[in-house]
Every structure is written in C-alpha cells, then in structure tokens.
Protein 1
Amino acid sequence: MRADQKAGCGHDEPALPLSKARDRVCEAAVSVSETESLPIRQALGRVLAEDVRSAIDVPGHANSAMDGYALRAGDLPNEAPRALTLIGAAFAGRPFLGRVNQGQCVRIMTGAPVPDGADTVVMQERVSVDAERVQVNALPAAGANVRQAGEDIKAGQVALEDGVQLRPAHIGLLASIGVAEVTVLRRPRVAFFSTGDELCEVGRPTRPGQIYDSNRYTLFGMLQRLDVEAIDLGVIRDRPEELEAGLARAAEGADLIITSGGVSVGEADYLLEVAERLGKVDFWSVAIKPGRPTVFGKLGDALYLGLPGNPVSVMVTFYQLAKPAIEKLSGLQPREPLLIRALCMATIKNKAGRREFLRGVLSRDETGRYIVSKTGHQGSGILSSMTQANCFIVVPEDSELIEAGSQVDVQPFEALV
Ligand code: AMP
Ligand code: MG
C-alpha cells in the first residue's frame, strides 16, 4: 500500500456511501453456474437451476373439501328438504367406485374423490340421516365443497421457475407433484479467516494480552445461515507474507473470501496492501458506523471482503455487504433488508455523512405501535449488544439528531420464512 493512499483512507477522509458500496459489491458478484442434482429435502434453501414442470394435476381428482354427502346438484329442488338414497361411502385413499345416479348420494370424507355422477358435497351438519335416507335440510350451491382436479397445479404447467430459492413451501410443492430430485445451483464457496497476533483459539488458555477469536464463530454462524459452503482457514498472524499466502490460497478455491481485522490504519494492519499486491482493490472505506474500514476487491476470480476486526463491525458489515454479495453468488437477487418504521425511545446523535447501525430492541406497545429502544453500550467491541438486540436501528446519513419520540427505520433480525 502506498503511504499516500493509506493516508487517504484515514478516518477524516470521505468514505464511500453504503448504498454505493453495496451496488459495487453486487455488480462484481455474479451467480455461480455449476449445478447439482439433489433430493428435495437437501435442496431446501438452494436455488433452482431449471424450470420444474408438473407431469400431473394437483389435486389429481376432484375431491371433497368437507366431511358430508356427495350428490348431484341437479337433484336438488329449489327448496329444502329433499331426501336422497345413501348408496355407499368414499374415503380419502378409498374411493367409492360406483356411480351416483339421480336421487342418490354417497357418504364422503375430506379428500375423498368425488364419485362419478356427483358434483356437489353437502356438509354433514346440513343433513339428517335415517338409515339409507339422507334428508338435505340446507341446500348447497351447485359444485359446493368440491376441490377441482388441477385447481392448484395443472399437468404440463411450470410449477416452479428456475432462479427460485427453495423454501419449505417449495419443497412441499415439489413433493405434491411427485418430484423427488431437482437440479440446483451449487452453493457459493466462502473461505474465511481471522487475523491478529492477539487471537487465541477457544478451548485453550489465553496468554497475557491475548483475546479469544470470536469473529470466526460469528462469521461461521452467519455463513451457515446463508447456506454457503464455508471454508474455515483459521487464524493468520499479522505478518504480510503469511496474510498474502493465506489470501492466495483462499483465492484458488473460493468464490468469496472474508477476513476480519487488519484493515484499519494501525501499524499491524496489512490486509489492504496485501490485497492490492495480489489483486485489485475497489474500495477500502465505507461511510458507516461501525465498520468504516472495510476493504472490497477481487483476488483472481474470488471476491474479497476485508471486514474490520471489532466484533460488532464484523456483523454489521457482513449483513450490509457480504450478505448481498452471497445472495448474488447464490443466483438470487439481493434482498433489500426489511425496514420497519418504529417510534424511537431514545435520542440518537449521529455524525452527518455516515449511516449508523445501532443495536435495538423492537417491540410493540399496548396500542400496537412498533417501538424501539437501544441496547446498552453501543461500542463496536460490545458483542453482547448484538446478543441482546433483535434489530438494527438505522440512522441515515442526513440525520444528525433523532429525538426521542420520533420515527426511525429499523431492520429486524428475523423474518418469517
Ligand atoms: P483490528 O482491526 O485488527 O485492529 O482489530 C480491531 C479490534 O478488534 C481489536 O481490538 C482486535 O483485538 C479486535 N479483534 C480483531 N479480530 C478479532 C477476532 N477475531 N475476535 C475478536 N476480536 C477481534
Ligand atoms: Mg488486528
């Protein structure tokens, strides 16, 4: 790294706005193209590589939506009651094989095929039964309570399009059309390592001045949730040669390399210069707090994100920059984080020109309004602020003061499916 450039990424220099940084990361990240065939359960979370067409109608036959009696709509007079002759029963999986003729009906359970001749089901609560005589007391509309063949999916139809991410409903739908295996894109390979002479592996006693390496664990967790092939390369010390060797090795097999630490302006921060030597650096300073010194570039065919060392900065920059990159690599369109407007319970000061991500607790008050409060200490090293939070409070670049009682944007950590 040239000294002049490193000075240029000092803390008082203008940094790239987060939206621009995100755009540049997303532009550089292109979908993997290799595919694999997987049983549908294992394909959960993966992206379909080709359209899936249904060979069958779903449902496969007209069937009853109720427990009741199958009859012919034409048999019903304009006024109740009307007595029909009961000629048999139809169960789900055990159809009635005969035909329902004029003046007849069949006992039918939910899911049972509607017998030939019948077209309507009357609920069992609407009839009185006396041996073989079924008296219909309240007339159903013609066709009532019948689920038509193919009303969910028709034979020959594209049931799922390529590019779709398979969620629980999708693998259920694949099962409903009898598809046991699908072709999906391979998972992106993400190599990651921690950097720092002070880092000690969990399970070992620390020596003076050492701290435990927590970033590799939060990174592992975040990667696991995004369903990538995570390649853990351990800890690399603050030695330019070792960092260079580590990055070069990672670049061989990975689609994305993520590191933590060593990207700031300290004397043991070498990753920016090493990345410049090995490849091409696009940006190294983003206008966010925490997480300003974040490096992005390309090393060979691999994308490289050098995240800062502070544990909260790692998580904030991961969700704002690494996650969209991984979505693109996975074959998805990056999803804008869900934003909720909530009433802010605290006054928040921000330095204009950067976006701040505070850790918040989102809830609803007695009147049903969303309210958000800050978790305690907000330092970028306070990882417990992340364990206590359920959302980020997003303070925009153009906002220097958010008064308690005004509205703020909140990014909840959880969404439903
Ligand atoms: P750095 O950017 O390397 O100067 O790191 C910034 C801060 O984050 C320092 O206090 C580091 O000790 C801390 N840090 C760096 N890497 C890790 C890690 N893997 N786990 C926990 N803390 C870390
Ligand atoms: Mg360091």
Note: The helical segments are 3-8, 18-28, 168-176, 215-225, 240-253, 271-278, 311-330, 384-388.
Protein 2
Amino acid sequence: MLSGGPGSGKGTQCARIVETFGFKHLSAGDLLRKEVVSASEYGTMILDTIREGRIVPSAVTVKLILREMESSDNHKFLIDGFPRSEENRIAFERITGSEPDFVLFFDCPEEEMVKRVLSRNQGRIDDNIDTIKKRLKVFEALNLPVVDHYEKRGKLHRVGKFTS
Ligand code: AMP
C-alpha cells in the first residue's frame, strides 16, 4: 500500500514501482473518478464528496478495490491512496481477511504538497486552494492515524522528512 497527502507524488511513483516490480496498480482516487465518469449509482455522491475533499464511504471504496483485485490475473497489488482512514483500514482488513505486507508513506511538507497540486494542471475539480486545504485537514485527521497504526505494526516505510 502507498500513502501520502495530496500532491505528495503517489501517482508518479506508483507508475515507476509498477514498471520496476510488476504490481497491479489500484488507485482509490482513480477508481472513484472512473466511477463518476461511468455514471454509476454512486457517481453523484462520489463527485460531491471529492469536490468537498471528504472521504467516500468505505463500503463503496472497498467494493471498487475488491472488484479490481478479483478480476486481475496479477496477485501482487499496489494500492494507492487507500486506506484513507481507520474506518477504511478496518473495513478492508475485515472483508479481505488480510493486511498489507508493506506500506510506503510519502512524508511530504505541506507547502510542497500545495505547490505541486496547484501546478499540476490535470483538470481535477479538487485541485483548487479551497479543496486542497480541506483535503490536507482530512489527511491529517484521518490518514495519519492509519500511518501510525502501520508504524506500530512495523510495516511502515517512510520516505521524506524524518522526525525523531
Ligand atoms: P487522490 O486522487 O488520492 O488525491 O484522491 C482524490 C479524492 O478522492 C480524495 O480527496 C477523496 O475525496 C477521494 N478518495 C480517494 N481515496 C479515497 C479513499 N480511500 N476513501 C475515500 N475517498 C477517497
């Protein structure tokens, strides 16, 4: 699994990791955006949630990830941007009965993340300063406890700034 705040470089590095190690890449954000475009029953709710920088309910995200895992021939998965919260993590572990072997965390300074998101020009509705501020708050409140959990389990590999 790969974790990091908005603009920390998850997508870019996932492409490289996949190329080098042959994982099947599953990006929670990309799967949710695909669901919006495909006009699924959850489309409007997902779009509103992304626009607000909030977290889509675990039931929906876990279902999308599992669907991709089950339909893939590959048995090595690189799951990016998930779990985003303890609720995500617990739901995933309960449903799959498994834990990640390895969690990579991009510990990127906030100013750098803001700068990168504002300059990436990918046409995303959530790449504006108001939504970024909300995404950063959500990241700190909900995602960092997941990072702490994996650190305690000895699974976390941190890239970037170090604290003692
Ligand atoms: P990302 O592409 O990873 O930056 O995700 C963009 C947006 O998709 C987030 O701000 C959330 O609104 C939503 N999202 C991404 N991953 C998840 C997840 N694991 N659970 C719920 N919502 C998510």
Note: The helical segments are 10-21, 28-37, 43-51, 58-70, 86-96, 110-118, 129-152.
Protein 3
Amino acid sequence: MAIHLSTPVSGLPGNGDKAAADFASIGIKTVRDLLWYVPFRYDDFSRREMIAKVPFNIPVTIDAIVKSIKLRPGKGRMTIIDAVIEDESGELKVIWFNQPYLVKTLPVGSRHSFAGLVDYRFGKTLSNPIHEPMGRNVNTGRIVPVYSLTGSLTMRKLRESMQRSLSVVDTLPDWLPQEIVLSEKLPTLSHALLNVHFPNSHEELNRAIDRLKFDELFLHQMLFDEVRRDRKIKNATPIAIDEQALKTFVDSLPFQLTKAQKLAAWEIVQDLSKPVPMNRLLEGDVGSGKTVVAAIAAHTVSKSPLLTKEGARGRSLVAYLAPTEILAAQQERSFFKSLKDSRVALLTRSRQMLNGEVCKKTDVIDALSNGEVDCLIGTHAILQDGIDLSRLALVVVDEQHRFGVEQRHALLERDPNHAPHLLSMTATPIPRSLALTIYGDLELSILDELPKGRKPIGTAIVPEQHREDMWKHVRSEISSGRQVFVVCPLIDPSDALGSRSVMDVEKMLKKILTGVRIGVLHGKLKSDEKQKRNEDFRDGKIDVLVSTTVVEVGVDVPNATVMVIMSAERFGLAQLHQLRGRVGRSDMQSYCYLLPDDASPISSQRLQAVVDSQNGFELAEKDLQLRGAGNVFGNAQSGFPDFKFATTADVPLMKLSRDWAMKLLEDASFFEAHPLVRERIEEALEQIHLE
Ligand code: ADP
Ligand code: MG
C-alpha cells in the first residue's frame, strides 16, 4: 500500500487499533508526526565481527547460523534459552532470559544477525542479544535508534514503522532557505531526518542533528524578530513609582527580602515607570524567591490607572501565566493573600476563582470585561478567545521556558500600538551573554542568593542495600510531622527492566510505610482530582505524595523535607536539580535521595554531580560535559524546552542562526521570496495549544 505524510499510523503494516491508540497517547497520529518522534539515544552495533575475533564487552553484530537452541527453566518463573551459534571462524554460546518463543523464531540452521555484548558471567557468552534475519539491518549491524516506548509499542515495531515512514521523507518540503542550506553545507531536511533515525555514521548523525538544531534556532530567531520589531514601535503604560506604598507592601511580607530580591524588584519597578514596554528576564535558582518579586511588580501595577492617549481606562490588569494548573492555583493563593487590596482571579481550564472564592468561568470572564479584576492568574487558558485583556499592563510569565515564543506573542501583541510590560521568570541558568543571543534585546535580573537560613539539601545516591534504612529515615521524618515527595519517571522506556511507575511505587510504599497517608498525583488524573490531591498535600492531609514530574515546576510546600527520586538515572541533571528544589524551602534540614535502577558508569557520574553541587549553573555545565552533544534529546533535558534538539551548548549555532535571520530579514521582500518560511512561522504562531 502506498503511504504518504498524512497517512494515519494505523495504516502502517502491523499497527492495529491498540498500536494506534498508544501512538496517539504520545501525540503521534500520522506518518508525518512519526517522523518527528526522534530517538532518545542510540546503540552502536555497527561493528561486525567474526566469532573468533569477537571483543569482550563492546557492542558488536555477529552474522551466524544457529547450531543448537534449547529451553530450560531458571529460578522461580524464569526461563532460559541456551544456544550455540557458529560462523566459519568458530562457535559462541548465547543466552536469553524469559524469551521462550525464540526456540521457534530461531530454529537450528537459520541465519541471523545477533547484536549485543559478550561477557564472561556465564563463561564466554553473548547475553540477551537482539536478533533479526541476516541482512535486514534495522535492529542490528548499524547505529540503532532507541525510542521511548509506551503501552504495547515495542522497539522492533516502532523501528519497523519508522523505516516504512522514512520511505516518504523526501516528500517533506524543506522550508529552510536554499542559500543557507548551500552556504552552511547543511544536509537537506529529509536527509537529516533519515540520519537522525537510522544514521549511516556518527558523522552523518552529527550533521543531521546540527541541521535540526539550526532549524529550531532559526525559526526561533524569526519569531523573536516578529516580537522584537513589534515591541520597538509600541508604547507601554508608565507606572508611577510610589515608594511609600512599595515600602508598606514589603514591610507586610512575613520575611525580609534578600539583597538580590530587593535589587531585582527595584530594577523592575524602574522599568515599569518608563513609557516603553519592559522586557526583563528574572533568573534565579529554585527556591531563590522569584514569586515575591513578581508580586511586588504586580502590586505596583495593579494599583495604577491605565493611561492611554485616549485618557484613563480604569485600573490596569496584571496577568500571571503559569505552566501548570497546580502552579496557577498555588500562585492564586499566594497572590490573594499578599495583594490584599487587589482583586485577584484564577482562570484555568478546570478551575476558576474570584477574590478567593471558587466560581464559574463566565463569572471571571464577565468580571474581566467589567474591569473588576486587577490580577488574573492562570494557565494558557487565559489566551482563549473572548477573554478581555484590553487593560493588560503587565504580563508575568513564570517558568518562561515552558512556554513557546508563540504563547508569549499571543499575550503581548494584541494591540497594534500598545504593549504590556513583560516580566519573564526562569530557574534555567542561562549566562548573560547567552540570554542576549537567544532572546535578543532583553534586560536581566539575577537572584544569586537563597533566603537566609536555607541549609544545603542533604543529597545521596541510595543503592539497593541501603534502601531499607532510607525508608526508615523517611518514616522518622513523617513521625516528626514532615512530608515527603516520591517522584517516578513518566514514560517507561521498555529497555528499563525495573522502571517504576507511580502505581507500582504506591503499592510498594503501602507495604513499607504502613499507616502512613499516601497520595498519588499524575497526568492521567482528572484536573479536579489533581487539584484536590495537591491541596491535600499542601494542607498536610497526605504524608507522602507519589507523583510523576508534575511537581517539577514551582510547587511550594515548605513542610516537605524529603524528596525521593525513583529511577533517578532517567532524569536530566537540570530536572533532578529542579525536583530537589521542591524541598529545602524552609529553615528545616531537608534531604534528597536518588534511587537509580541501573548504575552505568555514566549515570553514576551524573547522579554524583547532583550530590556534589547544589548550584544550578554548575550542574547545567556539568550536564553538557557528561552528555556530549547529540547523545540525548528530549525537552526536559535540553534546558530549553522550546527546543527538541538545541541545548545551552549550542552557542555557535545560535549565533549563526541569528546572523542569518538578521541578514535575510534586511531584504524587505524576503517572505515573498520564501513563502515556506512564512508558512512555518504562521504554523508556529498557531500552535497555541489550549489546555
Ligand atoms: P522560586 O524562585 O523557586 O519560584 P519561590 O518564589 O516559590 O521560589 O520561593 C520559595 C519559598 O521561599 C517560598 O515558600 C517563599 O515564600 C519563600 N521566600 C521567598 N523569599 C524569601 C525570603 N526573602 N526569606 C524567606 N523566605 C522566602
Ligand atoms: Mg517559582
């Protein structure tokens, strides 16, 4: 059957309804979507050897004939397959665990390629190799892609589907201007995608990755340019500085601001007083106290009349955009408490509030239209049509890297003449020079100190034999009234034998921590259940919260003192650091325990880095060193979740993309000559996924 880019994945051979549903659950509906589902790492089985020359403990592929194959029972319910394979040079023992069907798949006399490692655990043996008919070259004999899996999807099936899909990759239009492709000697888009999935060599892989990184960075520059040009010609409402009111507000806080917070707040207030739109990034490690700085800005603005050329239009509106519903609800509470004489509203898909009371969505929408809200907190649900943001004077974007340029654009560019001030906040440590390269003209405030009295978080890698003691410690913390986070990875790549899910861990903890109140929180719960679970944890009605990384951003429960991270090697360093930042938010001693499933030398090294450093900047650097460019993709790990491929290390490519963007945009007819670029930008701008 002929396939094309828009063929549904269910139309690929071997994919039934179940597979289609599993693909859909990770956002893949068509062949085109599948092509963009990139591996998270590779296994290099490109080295082929004769049996006599097979190296020890190095990945190889062996083409051989099955000489004998037998099934025998192992310990418990385990089954073992013992086989011998041979080629002209000799024989080799092969062993497989729990794959009894192989006796049928690999009959004596059949020829196959076997890929894996030879070790000496059971005498010189190839253990658990991958196999396929000789000459197939999809799962063996090459650099093999390893994808994240979910549901019933198997690696084999995914690779097969991918191979099929790649047969039409050439029909994907290449949007990047030819002049760039030619002068930078980049591979074409289809060539790059082909090599990202099934690389011919490491060199080709790196070239492919560079091309895809360049695409992201170039598109980003194009989008930024749209925003940049717009903002240059627009004016903003100047907010008069009322020092007395500012002081009163700061004095009303339950703590003293750090020096860094004071400085940042002052820089922001000064920007706000100007008639040009503020564009400031507030950067601070987890727990450095960014929220209160934003609250000061919000307080200043929400009391100020909105002056325009046409005269006053009532009080100004502040919008605070949070990346998750949980975070939005948390910030609503914190703003409602601290901004005493402002009218605060919450708007997310599943929950709406006005002045501290739960209400209907239409109530919030009406209140906004009637000018009865001073501070609107929400997720990107606030970007829906029909929501009156005409009084918007300040936009605060929390954890800004969670939002695409597109969403920022949608909030900022509503009015052709007027733009709100923008305060973005991030815990991603970006050096100043890099920030300028990525974000263009922007001011930076950095919170480089933690509030007084914070103790370093005791961090340890906990091997299997020490887990019992660790859970004892967890129990003792609970007995003294503290709370505990337990985080599990979201998707279980199938190659992880012991990867833990939230449900597994909950079950296990019910046994280990009898009598303790355990709650679960993950993406599949309904929104209001999530909300409830989160509130219960915040209010101390749950002792242990077992969750996916939904707690990663921003959640603030100062009474929690222990963070346990299951399958810790599955997370990026930046993410581990963020997760750890959920504890140590008071002056109580806190702990972070990293529980790896598999301790490969590289993952041990990465986890050790988290033990050794509590500094986000240092860890980001370390992450890059250990990872080496191009080995791992994935939003959560790149440090720039706008991007799938580009990372903080790609400064030269960022500069290159910026230079090209600036050069090409000098030509007023650029877009006329490059309709595909225009199309790509429009597409990106439209991708405002409503929750
Ligand atoms: P983040 O920068 O990670 O967003 P938050 O703004 O959530 O950090 O602040 C972390 C915690 O520290 C909160 O509980 C907040 O109330 C508290 N906090 C913020 N500033 C100070 C301060 N100057 N002194 C003491 N506690 C503070
Ligand atoms: Mg925060």
Note: DSSP finds 24 helices and 24 strands in the chain.
Protein 4
Amino acid sequence: MPTTHRFLEACRRRPVDRLPVWMMRQAGRYQPSYRAVRQQVGFLELCRSPELIAQVTCAPIDEFGFDAAILFSDILVHLPAIGLDLTFEKGEKGKGDGGPRISNPVRTRADVDALKVPVPSRDLKYVLDGIRAIKAGLAGRVPLIGFVGGPFTVASYVVEGGSQGFNRLKTMLYAAPEAAHALFEKLTQAAIVQIEEQIAAGAHAAQVFESWLGELDREDLERFSFPYLTRIAEAVKKTGVPSIFFATGMSGHLERLAGLGFDVVSVDWRIPIDEARRRAPGVAIQGNLDSTVLLGPTQAGVDKALGVCRAAGPAPGYIFNLGHGIQVGTPPENVKAVVDAVHAFRWK
Ligand code: 1CP
C-alpha cells in the first residue's frame, strides 16, 4: 500500500493528482450485490463474518472506483461485548433498513457501572480478521478506513434502546449528569480500544461517526462531548494515521470542531463547502453533497457534485463525499456517474 495515495495525501492537506472520492455507506442496500448477500445472512451475521466483511467492503471499490474503502461493520457491533443485548430488526418492505434494538437499555448509574469495556482481540476478533481479509482483497489498490461511533451517538442508542430519539439521553444529562459522564467515559474507552486495534490490524485512517451530535447546544457539547472526542482524536494521533470527524447539524460549531485534534472534518450539506473551508483552514474538509440528490436524475447529481468540487477550491485538503450516507433506493449508475465526474474534474 503506497503511503502517498491521494486520499491519505488529501487528509494531510497535501497536493493530489485528482480529487479523492468515497461515500459514506458506500456498501449497502442500494447495491444489488449487497442485497444478494443480505438475502442469505442477517445483518449482524454479516458483520461477524470476516470473509463477507471483505466481500462487501471491496465490492464498491470494484464497482465504482472509490479512492478509499471503509470497513463494513457498525457503530453498535461492540454492544454485546459491553453487556447489551443487540438485535437488528428486519427492514420493512420498501422502507429500507431495519433498525437496532437493545432489550436492556442503560437507564441508571448502576446500569452504566455494569457496562464492560470490550477487549477487541477477544470480543471483536471478527472485525480485526475482517480488516486483514479486506486488505488482502484490496491488494494495495486503495487505503482502508476503520471507524467507531462517537460517544454521544452510541449513547443515544444505548439509552433509548434503539433509534428512538434523544429525550431520555438528554434528560439524563440534566437529571443525572454523573451517570451521563460515567456512560460517556465508558463509551470513550470502548471507542479508543476499538480504533487502536483496527489501526493495529491495518486500517490506514480512522473516522469517528458522531452522526447525531447536532442535537446538543454549545454548553452541553463543551461539557458532555468535546472532552471525550479530544481524547479519541489524541489516541488516533498517537498511531500516526489520519483521523476524520463526522457529524451532522454541526456547522454552527465548525471552528470549535476544527480544534478538537482531528485531521479532517466531514461536513453535511447545510453549509456551503467554500464557507466550511474558509472557516476551518487548519484541517482538511470532507463532504458535502446532499445524498438525496443521488436519487434524482443522473445529470442533476453530476451538476451538483461538480458545483461542490468548484466551491471546495483548489487548495489542498479536500475529500469529496456526501453530507450523510447514501440512501436506500439510490440508482447505482448515479453513484458511478458522480465518482467519474469528480475524478475528471480539474482545476485549470
Ligand atoms: O443491511 C441492512 O439492512 C443493514 C443496514 C445497515 C448498514 C449497511 C446498518 C444498520 N449499518 C450498516 C453499515 C454501516 N453502519 C457502516 C458501513 C460502512 C459504510 O459503507 O459506510 C457504517 C459506517 C455504519 C455506521 C452507523 N450505524 C451509523 C453512523 C453513520 C450514519 O449513517 O449516521 C449509525 C447511526 C448506525 C446505526 C444503524 N445501523 C444500522 C441502522 C439501520 C442504524 C440506525 C440508523 C438510525 O438510527 O437512523
């Protein structure tokens, strides 16, 4: 694996031959090849098979020519190892993916204290074996991104018991702040050991998915999130691989996010990318095409994508991506057309 691949160079704000492009959720239900695998196995079963992990991770590289692969897994796979009973419901027909369910959610300080920190080499060996299998499948073509969920986003599932909003977790912040801090502390430790082990197993970069952090106001971000995120960024920095921070609804806090210690900040579509780059000159920026655009006419997606490339400007340190994950129902040919258009884009 050459250490000068354009994706890794852009993470480090170095010049590249062409813009690197990958898309969050690039492996998923919009792909016929993924749906074929899921007809055979359940979602968690897939996440626990190193061979299938490698197959679905590599498929979008083969099919679309993305510049980075992302480990196929989930931000919740470690929950059974920390003591929580996790299942994924079957998606409703036509409605997309099934959501996570936790039958013993965390509600009290005692529940938090009972949580364990996973030992990845024992509890998540399939993830680490999956990384090694992916690297064999990629054969050095593109770098591999490892990932973990951010403490707030993982806590939202752990406390609510699934994708059920944020009211219980946010109430805990005010009613039982010590319990909330103890929970974020445990989830931070769990995130750090997982990402360290993924990198040791061969991941070339690390992304923290803190998808729902935009729920918090600035005061609560400073108290309940940023100190923990800083520790995750520091842990990745020590390994020497680039770190990427992703959240949605956070453009009001961009300058602060840029100071947390991550190399790259991924922004959603709610902020123009030129504004993001101006406001955060000390980090690389990733994003930010609205994934909904990919559902529509191919040319509309291509035009919007090229608009994002132009707005991002010629300065090094930009990675093309979406503002959030690819949606179920996206025509694969739209994805291909956008990847090709970004690769053909030149500053001249
Ligand atoms: O096949 C299926 O039906 C399962 C659908 C699915 C997939 C494809 C889930 C269930 N997770 C995944 C893979 C996944 N999850 C990846 C793979 C790598 C990639 O190609 O990007 C990643 C990075 C995640 C991370 C993840 N899981 C996040 C953060 C990213 C985001 O989209 O905001 C979150 C919030 C989850 C929780 C989750 N996993 C799956 C579902 C349906 C959900 C709930 C989403 C919600 O609450 O709305």
Note: The pocket of coproporphyrinogen I is lined by residues 24-29, 38, 43, 70, 72, 74-76, 88, 91, 97-100, 147, 153, 163, 209, 211, 325 (CB under 6 Å).
